[in-house]
Amino acid sequence: MKYELGRCLLSERLLESNMTAFDLARTLLYKPERITDFVENKRIMPLKSAISIADTLGCDVNDLYELVAIESNVLN
After folding, report:
1. CB atoms within 10 A of CB 68
2. How far apart are CA 42 and CA 27, in angstroms?
3. pLDDT at position 23, please?
4. Which label site among 55, 62, 63, 76 has the fewest CB atoms less than 10 Å from its CB?
């Protein structure tokens, strides 16, 4: 099945982890603006960043975005 990324769920994961965007940025040595851009859907997290963020927050990479299933009409 094919998926598209929906809304970023980073703000929810930060709340669950009792962490601020600034704390996350400082921990991962990112600029705080970069984390804010992810939260506001201005920038999509590269996979390496998503893995680091998920590991830091104690969640799965798939928990960082809403995933929207797309039906595909595959011709054989």
Report:
1. 11
2. 21
3. 97
4. 76
Degrees to nearest 5, angle at CA 68 with 47 and 61: 30
pLDDT of residue 75: 61
Which tens digit of pLDDT belongs to each residue from 16-73? Answer: 999 999 999 999 999 999 999 999 999 999 999 999 999 999 999 999 999 999 887 6
Sign of CA dihedral 48, 53, 59, 64: negative
CA dihedral over 33, 39, 41, 46, signed as positive or negative: positive
Q: What is the pTM of this model?
A: 0.87
14, 22 Cβ separation under 8 angstroms: no
